[in-house]
């Protein structure tokens, strides 16, 4: 998809600070005078709301869950992502189809097939930041924020998810950023890369 905007996605296992870093990056781009659309997946739309509800009420079958993710993402692309990029805006997402590859891949689906299904309609980001953290540290952070580890956040699942994310690291649009250090240093590393890729 050709567009005049800039499409940035932040990914990583739970506990790596994606939401914090997405918000900081959006603020920074706005301070540069850019129009920014910041969003997340699952969305707050009808399909995304169903997915979010299952995190606490119990997961659906792998097939049902994947179907909801695809429906949610298709609506997200059509109604928000594609129009914003066509208008030249910076689009920043907290999770995208790479999370589906990782989390549904950890449930037995082929990540490459999930990617193929998504890229049939979902544009590939210009920049993908994978925020990386070892599983033990991630679980400690999840516990530290007052959450009980829900069904999405079990150790074996997170380890498999991290493995799938890290398998993407050789692709030219992918940048792995360690989140061992504080959020300020993580954001500085993200901004340096984003600035080098941002059209004036």
TrEMBL record:
InterPro entries: P-loop_NTPase (IPR027417), Thymidylate_kin-like_dom (IPR039430), Thymidylate_kin_CS (IPR018095), Thymidylate_kinase (IPR018094). Residues 10-190 form the Thymidylate kinase-like domain. Pfam families: Thymidylate_kin. Its EC number is 2.7.4.9. ATP binds at residues 12-19. It catalyses: dTMP + ATP = dTDP + ADP. SUPFAM superfamilies: P-loop containing nucleoside triphosphate hydrolases (SSF52540). It comes from the Bacteria. It is an enzyme of class 2 (transferase). GO terms for molecular function: dTMP kinase activity. Phosphorylation of dTMP to form dTDP in both de novo and salvage pathways of dTTP synthesis. Belongs to the thymidylate kinase family. This is Thymidylate kinase. It comes from Luteolibacter rhizosphaerae. The gene is tmk.
